[in-house]
């Protein structure tokens, strides 16, 4: 296999029902991809391995031929950072409704990570019960195939916790009906069930827990994203996560040197971000929008910065809206006692200076 096109009809692993906003893309079969075994539970997830794409495609074909059975289990290619792995490829165009994407704007800026994924899996592959990273929004577009989503509004997950406070791995498991194990399950409401067809996009709001099944051989594109509409939810989530870490190691508070710093380290290892990085996240978002407001007559300058050009395309009022939401969260962060313990005035620029500049840019733009 020299190359693989994402323009495939799932029945024979080659794509035909391709949305207009997606492009034909060729990826080498030597690409290494993450693959999860849906038949095995390891702690509260499926164990993963890394395979060459051509090896996974060969497995998939063989899996279909054998009636969707394999001694290797049901393998699901998931969380593949295709965009990051092949930046020179024009993989797809983001639908305009999802174009205000602060998460990927930030992680692209620091060239560390991204939250754009490709999922490819046979009928029967699935993703266990979860809510999305940082309580972000997510969108998922089916290139081909069909998915079933089981979705719970925020708060319903509390009725699904076991007697130790842990969320279930599989919300369809008969174990949940055992009152001795899941004492509040009887109070829960049934999930919202959604069938997603080929060519359709589903939007999952912040904090909506969900479990997803591939009812057919399916390929999808998935994004997590945050913007001015839910950045406050992200900030609330981080405060809750830090409080949870502090509760777990509170017995060492008096004996552990720099206990508050260790809490930040543990929070970052679990969630992927700490308070200082959250400040850096807000700083880059703010600076990009300030640049657009200050240089809105210079398309040439904006075009040198791809994200700034994209923000400029959203419009001046959108940039002002983003700055207002950033200012509100940054004000709360700057007043937070745990953040104050991190010597924020040593950051560059100090939060107070960034807030002053941010508010000045808003005032000038509204004149």
Q: Mind explaining what this structure looks like?
A:
By secondary structure, this protein is α+β, with helices and mostly antiparallel strands. The chain has two domains: 3-225, Cupin (Jelly Rolls, Sandwich), CATH 2.60.120; 231-365, no CATH class. It contains eleven helices and 13 strands. It has helices at residues 53-65, 82-85, 102-110, 231-248, 259-271, 275-294, 299-303, 306-314, 316-335, 337-340, 351-365; strands spanning 3-5, 26-28, 32-37, 48-52, 75-80, 116-121, 126-130, 137-144, 147-152, 192-196, 201-204, 209-214, 218-225. The strands form three sheets. It has a seven-stranded antiparallel sheet with strand order 4-3-5-6-13-8-11. The longest helix is centred in the last third of the chain and has 20 residues, at 275-294. It catalyses: L-lysyl-[protein] + 2-oxoglutarate + O2 = 4-hydroxy-L-lysyl-[protein] + succinate + CO2. One of its GO terms (cellular component) is nucleus. InterPro entries: JmjC_dom, JMJD6_ArgDemeth/LysHydrox. Residues 83-242 form the JmjC domain. It comes from Pogona vitticeps.
């Amino acid at each position: 296999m020299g190359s693989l096109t994402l323009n495939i009809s799932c029945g024979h692993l080659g794509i035909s029902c391709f949305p207009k906003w997606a492009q034909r893309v060729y990826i080498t079969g030597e690409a290494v991809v993450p693959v999860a075994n849906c038949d095995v539970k390891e702690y509260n997830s499926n164990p993963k391995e890394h395979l060459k794409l051509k090896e996974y495609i060969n497995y998939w074909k063989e899996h279909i031929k054998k009636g969707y059975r394999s001694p290797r289990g049901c393998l699901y290619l998931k969380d593949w950072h295709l965009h990051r792995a092949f930046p020179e490829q024009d993989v797809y165009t983001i639908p305009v409704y999802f174009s205000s994407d602060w998460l990927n704007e930030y992680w692209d800026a620091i060239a560390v990570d991204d939250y754009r994924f490709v999922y490819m899996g046979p009928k029967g592959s699935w993703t266990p019960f979860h809510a999305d990273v940082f309580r972000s929004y997510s969108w998922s577009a089916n290139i081909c195939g069909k998915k079933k989503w089981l979705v719970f509004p925020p708060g319903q997950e509390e009725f699904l916790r076991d007697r130790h406070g842990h969320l279930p791995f599989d919300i369809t498991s008969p174990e949940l009906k055992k009152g001795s194990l899941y004492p509040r399950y009887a109070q829960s409401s049934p999930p919202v069930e959604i069938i997603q067809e080929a060519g359709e996009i589903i939007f999952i709001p912040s904090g909506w827990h969900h479990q997803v099944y591939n009812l057919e051989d399916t390929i999808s594109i998935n994004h997590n994203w945050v913007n001015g509409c839910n950045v406050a939810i992200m900030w609330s989530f981080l405060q809750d996560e830090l409080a949870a870490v502090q509760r777990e190691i509170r017995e060492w508070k008096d004996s552990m040197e720099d206990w508050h710093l260790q809490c930040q380290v543990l929070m970052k290892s679990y969630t992927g971000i700490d308070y200082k990085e959250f400040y850096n996240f807000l700083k880059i978002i703010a600076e990009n929008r300030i640049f657009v407001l200050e240089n809105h007559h210079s398309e040439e300058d904006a075009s040198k910065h791809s994200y700034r050009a994209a923000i400029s395309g959203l419009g001046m009022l959108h940039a002002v809206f983003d700055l207002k939401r950033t200012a509100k969260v940054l004000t709360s962060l700057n007043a937070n006692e745990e953040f104050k313990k991190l010597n924020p005035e040593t950051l560059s620029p100090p939060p107070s200076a960034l807030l002053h500049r941010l508010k000045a840019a808003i005032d000038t733009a509204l004149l």
